[in-house]
C-alpha cells in the first residue's frame, strides 16, 4: 500500500506538471530516493500509454500532458554522447558539440553504393548540420551536396568540409540541358495571357483552356513520366473531347519548348520546372562522387527524384515532409523506397512550449500521433 500511494502521488504530480522542466525537476529529486531509473521509466511509459488510449477513444485530455511525458522519456532514453569520429583538420576549426543518440546513429552508418538513406526531421532538428558532420567523418569520400534552395547551397559552401561539392538542382540542369534557354524565359511556364492568344476556342473560354493547358504542362514537368497524357490533366468536370484537345495542345507546346530557342512567335519560353524536366529526360549521370547528400529533399519533384534514384552511388535524402513549398512535389519523398531510415526528433531552434504547440497543430491538422517535434 505504501508503494502504491507513492506511485499514485508521483502520477498526480506528473499530471499536474505545467512543463517538461517540472517533470525533470521531479525526476531529479527521485534520484536521491531508492528508486531505479528503470522503475521511473516504466511508470512514465504506462502513463503515456494510458493517455494515448484515452485520446484514441476521444476522451478529452490536454495534449500538453502527453507531450510533457513523451518529451521527458525521449530525453531519458536519448542522452547526449561524445562524438566517436576522429579529429579532422576541418573539425578542429569547429566548436565541439555533444551528439544525441539519434545523431550518433546516423554518423555510425557507413553508406554503400545503391543505398537510399532517409533522414526525416522537422524544423531546427539539424538536418543540414548532420549532413556536414557526415561528410566530415568520411574525408576520403567525395560528396555532392545538392538542394533546391540557393541559400542552402551558399550555406554549405561556408560550413561543409573540402570533400564536398555544392550545387543546386537548377544549376546542374542548366549545365546539362539549358544552354539554349532564353535568359528571360525562366519565369512562368507559358503565361496564361500568352497561351490564350494562340489556343483555339472550343467549349470553354480561351482563358480557361489556357489555364488547363498550363496546369497540364506543370503536372507533366513535375512528374517522372516521359510523355504527356490525360493523367496530367487537372481535376474537374472536363468532357472527353475537351480532354483530348487539352492534351494535344499541351503536347504541341511542349514540343516547341523542347527546341530551347525562346520561340517568340508562340511566346512559349522554358520554365525552371521545364528545365528540370529536360534534365530528367536526358538521363544524366552524376559521376565523380561516392555519395550524394540531398538537403530539403521534401521539395524535390518526382522528376528530380527520378534522376537521383538512377545514380549508382549512395544517396542520403534529408527533409521534412511538413515543410513543402513546391506545389508539384506532393508526397514524393514519402513515396521513395529507402534502405535505411533515421529520425531527428529534437529541435534546437525553439523550446518545448513552441514544440508542444506545433505538435498539437500537426495532430489536429494531419492526424500525427505522438509528439511530432521536441523542443
TrEMBL record:
<dbReference type="GO" id="GO:0005634">
    <property type="term" value="C:nucleus"/>
</dbReference>
<dbReference type="InterPro" id="IPR027417">
    <property type="entry name" value="P-loop_NTPase"/>
</dbReference>
<dbReference type="GO" id="GO:0003677">
    <property type="term" value="F:DNA binding"/>
</dbReference>
<dbReference type="GO" id="GO:0000724">
    <property type="term" value="P:double-strand break repair via homologous recombination"/>
</dbReference>
<keyword id="KW-0547">Nucleotide-binding</keyword>
<dbReference type="GO" id="GO:0031297">
    <property type="term" value="P:replication fork processing"/>
</dbReference>
<dbReference type="InterPro" id="IPR000212">
    <property type="entry name" value="DNA_helicase_UvrD/REP"/>
</dbReference>
<dbReference type="Pfam" id="PF13245">
    <property type="entry name" value="AAA_19"/>
</dbReference>
<protein>
    <submittedName>
        <fullName>FBH1 helicase</fullName>
    </submittedName>
</protein>
<keyword id="KW-0378">Hydrolase</keyword>
<keyword id="KW-0067">ATP-binding</keyword>
<dbReference type="GO" id="GO:0005524">
    <property type="term" value="F:ATP binding"/>
</dbReference>
<keyword id="KW-0347">Helicase</keyword>
<dbReference type="GO" id="GO:0043138">
    <property type="term" value="F:3'-5' DNA helicase activity"/>
</dbReference>
Amino acid at each position: 500500500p505504501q508503494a502504491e500511494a507513492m506511485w499514485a502521488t508521483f502520477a498526480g504530480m506528473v499530471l499536474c506538471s505545467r512543463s517538461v522542466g517540472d517533470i525533470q525537476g521531479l525526476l531529479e529529486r527521485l534520484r536521491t530516493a531508492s528508486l531505479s531509473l528503470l522503475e521511473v521509466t516504466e511508470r512514465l511509459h504506462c502513463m503515456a500509454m494510458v493517455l494515448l488510449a484515452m485520446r484514441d477513444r476521444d476522451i478529452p485530455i490536454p495534449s500538453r500532458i502527453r507531450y510533457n511525458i513523451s518529451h521527458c522519456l525521449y530525453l531519458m532514453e536519448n542522452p547526449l554522447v561524445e562524438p566517436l569520429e576522429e579529429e579532422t583538420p576541418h573539425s578542429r576549426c569547429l566548436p565541439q558539440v555533444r551528439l544525441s543518440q539519434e545523431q550518433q546513429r546516423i554518423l555510425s552508418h557507413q553508406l554503400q553504393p545503391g543505398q537510399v538513406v532517409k533522414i526525416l526531421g522537422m524544423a531546427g532538428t539539424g538536418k543540414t548540420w548532420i549532413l556536414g558532420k557526415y561528410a566530415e567523418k568520411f574525408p576520403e569520400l567525395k560528396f555532392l551536396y545538392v538542394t533546391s534552395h540557393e541559400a542552402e547551397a551558399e550555406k554549405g559552401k561556408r560550413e561543409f568540409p573540402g570533400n564536398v561539392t555544392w550545387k543546386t538542382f537548377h544549376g546542374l540542369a542548366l549545365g546539362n540541358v539549358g544552354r539554349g534557354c532564353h535568359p528571360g524565359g525562366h519565369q512562368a511556364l507559358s503565361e496564361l495571357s500568352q497561351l490564350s492568344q494562340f489556343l483555339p476556342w472550343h467549349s470553354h473560354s480561351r482563358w480557361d483552356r489556357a489555364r488547363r493547358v498550363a496546369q497540364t504542362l506543370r503536372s507533366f514537368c513535375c512528374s517522372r513520366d516521359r510523355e504527356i497524357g490525360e493523367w496530367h490533366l487537372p481535376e474537374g468536370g472536363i468532357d472527353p473531347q475537351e480532354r483530348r484537345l487539352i492534351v494535344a495542345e499541351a503536347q504541341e507546346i511542349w514540343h516547341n519548348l523542347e527546341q530551347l530557342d525562346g520561340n517568340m512567335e508562340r511566346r512559349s519560353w522554358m520554365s525552371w520546372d521545364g528545365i528540370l524536366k529536360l534534365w530528367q529526360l536526358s538521363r544524366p549521370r552524376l559521376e565523380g562522387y561516392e555519395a550524394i547528400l540531398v538537403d530539403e529533399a521534401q521539395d524535390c519533384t518526382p522528376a528530380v527524384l527520378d534522376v537521383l534514384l538512377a545514380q549508382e552511388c549512395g544517396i542520403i535524402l534529408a527533409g521534412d515532409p511538413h515543410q513543402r513549398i513546391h506545389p508539384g512535389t506532393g508526397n514524393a519523398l514519402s513515396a521513395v523506397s529507402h534502405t535505411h531510415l533515421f529520425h531527428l526528433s529534437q529541435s534546437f531552434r525553439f523550446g518545448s512550449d513552441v514544440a508542444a504547440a506545433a505538435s498539437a497543430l500537426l495532430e489536429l491538422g494531419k492526424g500525427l500521433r505522438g509528439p511530432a517535434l521536441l523542443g
